[in-house]
Amino acid sequence: MDPIRRKILKAGAAATAMAAAPRVFAQQTGRGGAAMSFYEKGPVRIHYQEVGSGFPLLLIAGGGLNSTISGLSGPFPAIEEFKGEYRCIASDLRNANSGQSSGPLEIDRPWDAHTDDQLGVMDHLRIDKFMVMGFCIGGPFIWNLLRRAPDRVVAAVLAQPSGFRPEMPTLSYDTNMTGWGPAFVKRRPEITMAMVDKFLTKMYRTNPDFVYTVTRDFVRSCQTPVLILPDDIPAHPYAVAMEAAMLAPKAEVSMFPWKEPKERIPLAVRQIRSFLRAHRPASA
Description:
Layout: H1 3-29, E1 35-41, E2 44-51, E3 55-60, H2 78-82, E4 86-91, H3 110-124, E5 130-135, H4 138-148, E6 153-159, H5 171-179, H6 181-187, H7 193-204, H8 216-221, E7 226-229, H9 238-247, E8 251-253, H10 265-279
Parallel strand pairs: 3-4, 3-5, 5-6, 6-7, 7-8
Antiparallel strand pairs: 1-2, 2-4
C-alpha cells in the first residue's frame, strides 16, 4: 500500500475511535457523571448508580413499589446535595414499573427480598460499612436493614417515612394494587393479579403495624443513630414517625413541618448533613 495512503487511513481510524470514545463513556457514566451498572444474582438483576466519592451513602427513593433512582429528585435532590462529600449509591427497586431492575416476586418474603437486593449491591461493590438515607418506603426498608445488618449501617436518615395508619388499614395495599400491580402484570405475563394480591397482602396486611418491618421492641433496642424527618400525609403518618423517634435510644428528629414552606427545606438538608458528619467514621 502507498505510504501516504496508509498514513491517511491510520489517521482516519484514530479520529473515528476518538469520536466514538465520548459516546461509549456517556453510556457508561450517564447524566451527571453517575456510573450506571447492574448487579446480578441468579434471576435477580438490579440497576444501580454510583456518583461522588467519600464514605458510602446508600440512598433509597420514595414512590412505594415504583421506587427508582429518578425519585431521588424530591423533596430535594439528594444525590446532588451529597455527592460532593459521599459515595452515593442508589438503585431501582426490583420490579419497579419505570425502572430497570427485575427479579422474582417473592410472595412469602416481600420486604426481605428487597433488603437482599440492597445488601447484595453493597456486597457487590465490596462495601462493608455504610450510611443510609431513605424516603417514604425507604423508612421500612431502613428498619429492616438495621435488623438484618446492624453492624454494617453506621447511621440512618428516615425522611417522610411510611408506616401503618390504623384508621386507614388498607391504604398501602390499595395504593399498590392500583398504582403498581396492573402495570407490573402487563409487563410480566407470567405474573397474575392474584399473585400480586398475595404479595401485597403479605407485605401490608398480614399483621400490619407500626413501621411494617420491625417491632417496637426492636426499635427500642436499636443502637444505631437515626435521624427522622416526619411527614403527615396518609401514607406517611406523623404519629408513627414520632413514636419511632421516641423509642429509638439514639434518635434525633427534625423540625416539623420541614417541607412547607419550601424555604425550610435547606434547613432540613443542613441538619441531615450535620447528622451524617457527626456519625461518619473518623477514618473515612
